[in-house]
Design brief:
Its EC number is 3.6.4.13. By secondary structure, this protein is α/β, with parallel strands linked by helices. It has two domains: about 120 residues, P-loop containing nucleotide triphosphate hydrolases (Rossmann fold), CATH 3.40.50.300; about 190 residues, Rossmann fold (3-Layer(aba) Sandwich). The protein contains ten helices and 14 strands. Helix 5 packs across helix 6.
């Protein structure tokens, strides 16, 4: 059993960058996001080209705001046509995400921004679950769901704009989608009916590679918002990264306010489940006189309902601790997280 010592001297850290978080102001409106200043440029670039590449820094707001920008611009230009033919699943804007939790959480966020329930104007589609209706015009979905739809309709005619987000995550599904979307783009361009616009987005990708693949597609760089971050590294090599992560967790728990959540990255379900059990046991034992902790796991092989628990508000005087695989790394923003502990290891499939 791992105990929480009052002071673990071997786990000393070295600060690489020192900054203060006191000046950080929370974003309360989408208009405060950095991407909002480039709204006109984004709309012009997308509608003036069949395909374009956007390289946007983390936190700029590309995943939540760009589909809204494009929908509102198209609505303004073709309002009479859209109101005259409100057919289900016509002229949809789709935005793909690599994981279920990202697709659902982003859809719910965008729906709340337009003051609607998820499943009305903004919806989502993931494996075994969807929230769409006749009014849905913006749909967030996993790569696998769009790939499944392409089996029935290779030209993806129900979509007028397809956004391939997190393009740097080169999974089998995403690579297949690139080929299918490129074929659909060329077919619909030749047919001159129901034109298709494709947008490839990422925070870290080889833009030249994607631009060349999509016939020299133009590239637009989107500036993000850089928050002050303190980065610490262990001074000595750790043979047991799970034990080291737990020690670091309880060091932070003893010294920081309870309203500051902690996110721990581990490599898989077994490690996460055992670590969550260990944390709960240490706190429940009462021998360390620790403040209460709400421990939540997050990994792919969980029900959607359990995954969404990480986004709920934590009760007062309880610290939120999330133990996650790298599915908590991209496209999702978990409220209240102020400290991240990365074990430095990840499981990656190679072929």
């Amino acid at each position: 059993m791992v105990k929480a010592p009052p002071d673990h001297t071997p786990m000393t850290v070295d600060s690489q960058d020192s900054s203060s978080f006191e000046s950080m102001m929370p974003i309360t409106s989408p208009n405060q996001l950095p991407i909002h200043s480039m709204r006109k440029k984004i709309i012009q670039t997308v509608f003036n080209n069949d395909c374009c590449i956007f390289l946007g820094e983390t936190g700029c707001g590309k995943t939540t705001q760009i589909p809204r920008f494009l929908y509102e611009a198209r609505e303004k230009k073709f309002k009479s046509v859209l109101n005259k033919k409100p057919h289900r699943n016509k002229n949809l804007i789709c935005c793909t995400q690599p994981r279920r939790v990202a697709a659902i959480s982003v859809a719910e966020r965008v729906a709340s921004e337009v003051n609607q329930q998820c499943g009305q104007l903004v919806g989502y589609s993931v494996r075994f679950d969807e929230a769409v209706s006749r009014q849905t015009k913006i749909k967030y979905m996993t790569d696998g769901m769009l790939l499944r739809e392409a089996l029935l309709d290779p030209n993806l005619r129900q979509y007028s704009i397809i956004i391939l987000d997190e393009a740097h995550e080169r999974t089998l599904h995403t690579d297949l989608l690139f080929g299918i979307v490129k074929q659909a783009l060329e077919y619909r361009k030749k047919s001159k009916k129901n034109p298709l616009h494709v947008l490839v987005m990422s925070a870290t990708m080889n833009v030249d590679l994607f631009s060349n693949y999509f016939n020299q597609a133009p590239v637009l760089y989107l500036q993000g918002r850089q928050y002050p971050i303190d980065v610490f590294h262990v001074q000595e090599s750790q043979t047991d990264y799970i034990h080291a992560s737990l020690i670091t967790l309880f060091q932070i728990h003893r010294s920081k306010p309870l309203n500051e959540g902690i996110l721990i990255f581990l490599t898989g379900q077994d490690e996460i489940d055992s670590t969550c059990k260990t944390i709960k046991h240490i706190v429940a034992s009462g021998t360390e006189s620790l403040e209460p902790i709400l421990v939540l796991p997050l990994y792919a092989n969980m029900t959607t309902m359990n995954q969404m628990l990480v986004f709920k508000q934590t009760p007062m005087n309880i610290r939120k601790v999330i133990v996650s695989t790298n599915i908590g790394e991209t496209s999702i923003t978990i409220p209240g997280i102020r400290h991240v502990i990365d074990c430095g290891c990840v499981k990656i499939k190679t072929f």
